[in-house]
Amino acid sequence: MSTVETGSAQATSERTTNPLAVLATPWAIVIAVPLIISFLDPSRFEAIVGFAANAFLGTLPYIAFAVILIAWLKAAGAEAAIGRAFEGRETRAIVLAALFGGLAPFCSCEVIPFIAGLLAVGAPLSAIMAFWLASPLIDPPTLLITAAALGWPFAIGKAVAAVGLGLAGGFIVKALTAGGLFASVSRGTVRKGCGCGPSPFDGRPVWRFWAEGHRTDIFSAELRANAAFLAQWLALAYVLEALLVTYVPASLIAGLVGGEGLGPIVVSALVGMPAYLNSYVAPPLLAGLTEQGMSDGAAMAFLIAGAVSSIPAMAAVWSLVRAPVFATYLALGVTGAIVSGVIFQMVV
Predict the structure, then answer these.
(1) Average pLDDT of 319-323?
(2) What's 22's DSSP letter?
(3) What are the pLDDT digits (tens) for 170-217?
(4) How far is residue 262's CA from residue 343's CA, in Å, rounded to a whole number?
(5) How confident is the model at residue 275, as a pLDDT?
(6) Which positions ≥6 away from 322 have C-beta within 8 Å?
(7) Mean pLDDT of 220-236
(8) Regarding predicted confidence, which is higher, 206 or 120?
(9) Contacts (Cβ under 8 Å, ≥6 apart) of 272
(10) Which of 148, 221, 254, 287 has the smallest count of CB within 10 Å of its CB?
């Protein structure tokens, strides 16, 4: 999904009040890895911990802004504005769906009832596909974290790729539908999701949410949940990046995904789809890989392919639409990742 995948504030609270549950969180790895290094390779303990700590502190301003922004979008009820983007002429709906795909403030499970609602009210498949392709790729927190880890060229390139892939996918599906394909789209079941948010078609956004008490409560809950989510995943990402830079030979990375040709980009896209890392862990790890010799185009292809193949995004597609639509989603995703990598390699 394209937003901070917090689930619910209640679930976060339950994890923090159960000491045993902490063992199933990224914090367990963040704590365990330095301890293991201190026993097995004490000479590198200080360097690894220092690298991870400095990287995390350098990202803090981006984390703070991202947390505030996503909490504001949730408290304001921005889903209602996004839902109305699918109304009207098909071409207009495709364009707006691709643009809004990177702004949707949903947790991963909310995309299921949102798309199910669009199918139920007869929104064109082309616009739905545009949203589906763009939504997992970028959102405000991901944009900022990508910029912090890889630089603004990568962040802007990924945002452009998200909108471009959404537009291309939407218009390709429009053409295929006009040619007689996708006569049957939906599996005929509408899931209710996890109940962690309102219907995207209810009400109107209230951008000055602080005037309403219950929206202020939503803002506070989202602020805490998102801060906890981002902190744990980014701490894990920077610990793993420190291990990668310290122990993985640069020659190995450069041999697999280095160089300027098409091959490394294709390999990265194909590896990125099954080896999915969420959008908050991937940028710091790719920063380490690029330092070791991974080409910029290969890194972009990995970012795009991994996000499109995320478990929430794939589950949403498979649960709601028939196999031909699912296969089209996959084909557009991997092709878009390769094309994005090639273009980024040429431009940067």
Answers:
(1) 78
(2) G
(3) 999 999 998 888 877 766 544 444 444 445 555 677 888 888 888 899
(4) 11
(5) 56
(6) 184, 185, 186, 187
(7) 84
(8) 206
(9) 301, 302, 303, 304, 305, 306, 309, 337
(10) 254
What pLDDT is stored for residue 308 in this prediction? 80
d(CA 46, CA 70): 35
Q: What does the DSSP 8-state code read for residue 23?
A: G
Give the pLDDT of residue 180: 82
- Report d(CA 97, CA 114) in Å as an integer: 13
Distance, CA of 278 to CA of 8 (rounded, Å): 18
Single-letter amino acid code for the residue at 335: T
Of 137, 147, 123, nearest to 168 by C-alpha is 137
- How many angstroms separate the most distant Cα atoms in the chain? 65
239, 34 Cβ separation under 8 angstroms: yes
Q: What is the pTM of this model?
A: 0.69
Other CB atoms closer than 10 Å to residue 182's CB: what's the count?
17
Q: Which residue(s) pair with 321 in the sheet?
A: 186
C-alpha–C-alpha distance, residues 288 and 294, integer Å: 9
Residues 6+ apart with CB under 8 A from 177: 124, 125, 126
Q: What is the structure's pLDDT at 312? A: 56
Q: Map tokens 């364009």 to a residue.
A: 95
Q: Report d(CA 91, CA 112) in Å as an integer.
A: 23
* CA atoms of 23 and 26, how far apart (whole Å): 8
User: ∠ at Cα 171 (167, 174), nearest 5°?
Assistant: 145
Question: Which H or E element spans position 168?
Answer: helix 152-178
Residue 75 to residues 42, 214, 258, Cα–Cα distance (Å): 47, 9, 44
Residues 21-54 pLDDT 10s: 656 678 888 899 999 999 999 999 998 899 889 8
The helix/strand/coil state of 2 is: coil
Residues 6+ apart with CB under 8 A from 182: 125, 173, 176, 324, 325, 328
